[in-house]
Amino acid sequence: MSNVTQIYSIVNGAVADVLGSNNLTARDTTSFVDLGRSLAEAQKLDSFFGALACRIAKTVEFVRLYERNERRVLADLQEFGAYVQKVYAEIPDAVSNPVWSLSDGQNPPTITQADPYGITTTVNITTKIFGKRGTWAIEIVRPTKQIKEAFLNETSMMAFIDAIYMTIENSYNIEVEAVENLAVSTAIAEAIENGKSTNLLQVYNQESTGVSLTVSTALKNVDFLAFCNKKISEIRSYMRKPSKTFNVAGYTTFTPDSKCVTEILTDFANASKFYLRSNAFHEELVSLDKYNEVPYWQTPGKTFAFADCSSIKIDNFDVKNDADPTDPKPVTVTGTGIIAFIRDEENVKAYFGERDTWELPNPRNRSVSHGEQADVGYAVDPHANGWVFYIAD
């Protein structure tokens, strides 16, 4: 059975999300995010597009190249093979040192030889394979004959054609970024569903005396902002040491600063920057290796409201399902008020990815067809550290 799924409808929906056309909508990422398995008038307009006026003295293309946010997910992309196998090794337990059992210490001593072939324990090895991926395409056709009616010289016509290709590139970048958002949101959902998260507002209200903040007031409270920054910094520091605490699989691992990705929601970063009495928070974040400010996790909604930007809603069978023995289905995992996500760079990663471009002229009708084909497959690894920070009443 093929592990490649057409995801153009998901891509289109995700793009609509990031462009603010939709409210927060559950997106099913099961097919491409892998958590590891044991396997006017016609006379005035050109005759092709029907939108360009004929013989305009100057045409200015308002198209600029969009560069997507770098989140250290699109790394180590493989073009060949069907799966990536990942190997995990459990640390062995300590045992008695036989050097000090050789003699009983008496005079004369009684010697007890240790059998060098009596060792029966070994390192416990487990594996997971990752191979799911999704695919989609961008396809357009442009004329080579009729388009000349819209321009007075080759230079201005080529500028327009360049704008078409820049728009294609922008479309691809926006689509990849939108799908990448879904992959990271899946990792966030996995952490939330398995208790690898902290409700900073709840903890603050429990530890504070005489103060009871709510989500609507918390991000304007200086003490709360300082408290959040302290807790986030602490967890990041704790991850540097070997532990089973910070990953879903309970795997002994650690995350050095060079491998740690710290993502902070823009609303929270700005609140810290502008409401704290000192600028220490901002300076500290900027100095952190792999620090990344994220305007929203999945969608900005229509107004970039905090409730939309800080929320995720993910359907992924491997994250949560109803366990129906006859027809199991994914169950939606929703997270709100998410202000930060700290993860090992191995926690969410694109293992498979390929982009193919093709172009074919049609001499009969003087047109050119252009296509972009994209494959991408993400892995969310429960063995890698990942911790979510959120605020909820």
Topology:
Layout: E1 4-6, H1 8-18, E2 27-28, E3 33-34, E4 84-89, E5 125-130, E6 133-143, H2 154-193, E7 197-199, H3 200-207, H4 215-218, H5 222-238, E8 260-265, H6 266-275, H7 280-287, E9 291-294, H8 306-309, E10 312-315, E11 333-335, E12 338-344, E13 348-362, E14 367-380, E15 386-390
Parallel strand pairs: 1-6, 2-10, 3-14, 7-15, 8-9
Antiparallel strand pairs: 4-5, 6-14, 8-12, 10-11, 12-15, 13-14
Helix pairs in contact: 1-2, 5-6
Protein architecture, described:
By secondary structure, the protein is α/β, with parallel strands linked by helices. The protein has one domain. It is 26% helix and 23% strand. It is built from eight helices and 15 strands. Strands 1, 3, 6, 13 and 14 form a five-stranded mixed sheet that branches. Strands 7-15-12-8-9 form a five-stranded mixed sheet, sandwiched between helices. Helix 1 packs across helix 2 and helix 5 packs across helix 6 (266-275). The protein starts with a strand and ends with a strand. The relative contact order is 0.21.
- Oligomeric form: single chain
Shape descriptor: globular
The averaged pLDDT comes out at: 83
Uncertain segments are 39-43
Which structural traits does this protein have?
393 residues, alpha/beta, 15 strands, 26% helix
Put the structure in a nutshell.
By secondary structure, this protein is α/β, with parallel strands linked by helices. The protein is 26% helix and 23% strand.
